[in-house]
Amino acid sequence: MTKLSVNINKIATLRNARGGETPSVTEAAVKIQEFGGQGITIHPRPDERHITRKDVYDLKPLVTTEFNIEGNPYQSFIDMVLDVKPEQVTLVPDADDAITSNAGWDTKKHLDFLTEIIAEFKNAGIRTSVFLDPLPELVEYAAKAGADRIELYTEAYAKNYLTHKEQAIKPYYDTAVEATHFGLGINAGHDLSLENLKYFADTIPNLLEVSIGHALVSEALYMGLENTVQAYLKRLAKW
Ligand SMILES: CC(=O)[C@@H](O)[C@H](O)COP(=O)(O)O
Ligand SMILES: NCC(=O)COP(=O)(O)O
């Protein structure tokens, strides 16, 4: 079964546009879980452009499914995650000035760094996932670093899905096979949508979790949040 973790960054983007509490990030998390969401993902960035430090702490007691915190492991991020103790942390090597996440880790180059940081999270009982481009040769080093899972960075798949989906998914399939070989769990995310999710989930073996935010919140403008979450769950259902 592939779990749906809903990324609520964009709810915070909308809230921050007016500086108040509407829409409420915590209420959205509670509702999403009532509607069937199996996890809540957030990506607190250093500039707090959407999710703030306060949101992270406010959300912790309200996330009764799986709490997944993504981010670049700066010391302040590491300290916060160790304090909050979510079920999962996803390490993402994003530049501060990037508009969104735009690359996975070079796990070979950053092996020592990742090994040290992953050990800290694992000692605290936090499952650790490493954001990865679909490059099978990097999987071995994610495993060497001690990661529990990889998160496949699906932007390229999403971009090419409409024109040549078989070609677009091939490197993801190959990377997933390699991850299974090394005993790593597989997550995926970035630009997954109602349109492109089913083919991805049906094709990638052992896909444990997808985290989806931008498209889901955009689709919810027309369909409503409950219908949208339900529609995603249907795309992930195997029957
Ligand atoms: C890690 C990742 O893939 C991202 O999709 C991220 O969580 C989205 O971040 P923004 O909402 O800041 O674009
Ligand atoms: N890890 C990916 C994620 O949380 C959501 O990415 P997106 O759907 O907002 O592109």
UniProtKB/TrEMBL annotation:
Pathway: Cofactor biosynthesis; pyridoxine 5'-phosphate biosynthesis; pyridoxine 5'-phosphate from D-erythrose 4-phosphate: step 5/5. It is found in: Cytoplasm. The active site is at H43 (proton acceptor), E70 (proton acceptor), H190 (proton donor). Signal peptide: none annotated. The record marks E151 as: Transition state stabilizer. Keywords: Cytoplasm, Pyridoxine biosynthesis, Transferase. GO terms for molecular function: pyridoxine 5'-phosphate synthase activity. Its main location: cytoplasm. InterPro entries: Aldolase_TIM, PyrdxlP_synth_PdxJ, Pyridoxine-5'_phos_synth. Its EC number is 2.6.99.2. 1-deoxy-D-xylulose 5-phosphate binds at R45, H50, T100. Pfam families: PdxJ (PF03740). It catalyses: 3-amino-2-oxopropyl phosphate + 1-deoxy-D-xylulose 5-phosphate = pyridoxine 5'-phosphate + phosphate + 2 H2O + H(+). 3-amino-2-oxopropyl phosphate binds at N7, R18, D191, G213, H214. Homooctamer; tetramer of dimers. Catalyzes the complicated ring closure reaction between the two acyclic compounds 1-deoxy-D-xylulose-5-phosphate (DXP) and 3-amino-2-oxopropyl phosphate (1-amino-acetone-3-phosphate or AAP) to form pyridoxine 5'-phosphate (PNP) and inorganic phosphate. Belongs to the PNP synthase family. This is Pyridoxine 5'-phosphate synthase. It comes from Chryseobacterium viscerum.
